[in-house]
Design brief:
- By secondary structure, chain A is mainly β.
- In chain A, the strands form 2 sheets. In chain A, strands 2, 4, 5, 9, 10 and 11 form a 6-stranded mixed sheet that branches. Chain A has a 5-stranded antiparallel sheet with strand order 1-3-8-7-6, with no helix packed on it.
- Helices cover 0% and strands 53% of the residues of chain A.
- Chain A starts with a strand and ends with a strand.
- By secondary structure, chain B is mainly beta.
- Helix content of chain B is 0%, strand content 53%.
- At the A-B interface, strand 5 and strand 10 of A face strand 5, strand 9 and strand 10 of B.
Amino acid sequence: RKEVEQDPGPFNVPEGATVAFNCTYSNSASQSFFWYRQDCRKEPKLLMSVYSSGNEDGRFTAQLNRASQYISLLIRDSKLSDSATYLCVVTHQAGTALIFGKGTTLSVSS
Amino acid sequence: NAGVTQTPKFQVLKTGQSMTLQCAQDMNHNSMYWYRQDPGMGLRLIYYSASEGTTDKGEVPNGYNVSRLNKREFSLRLESAAPSQTSVYFCASSDTTRETQYFGPGTRLLVL
């Protein structure tokens, strides 16, 4: 079983839709959690960190449930520019390697 | 500010050939990483270097060697390329205290 599991996708939604991605991780020692975004044929880029109290960045909301070892990302009012692959990422400690999920592809259409 | 740079962008090799992928960062980061990305597999860590002078194996190190030349540069070498090493290779760096990893644009490698 892979350490980080994500919804397989793809998600195809119209502009303005709300979409949620889920992710589970298997190692309870995981300390830090992130969502990265990867555009087609580009490098991954940090979208947002995920904190236990939940955090919001504009139209994006991330939640962490340590007891269930579950991470989520909610995108409200989807834009065409949100089309990308979203990667759920965990680390065990600062400065060590990121452990990636396989990613979920989002396609937003007009 | 260039961030993380990688060379070359594309490369075609024949089985058995060798090559070195170069990576450099100008953010004064301590940690540097090499990942490969394959369809259906996600990104997997090959090697990483927590600080200048140290390197450690990641999830898929076989067939690769690395050199942390100085704080800025971290190279990945394929001594005898195999078709299974056809992939997209990403270098990344991070400040150990801030965790966020910054990725280079990638090297697309095809081994025939």
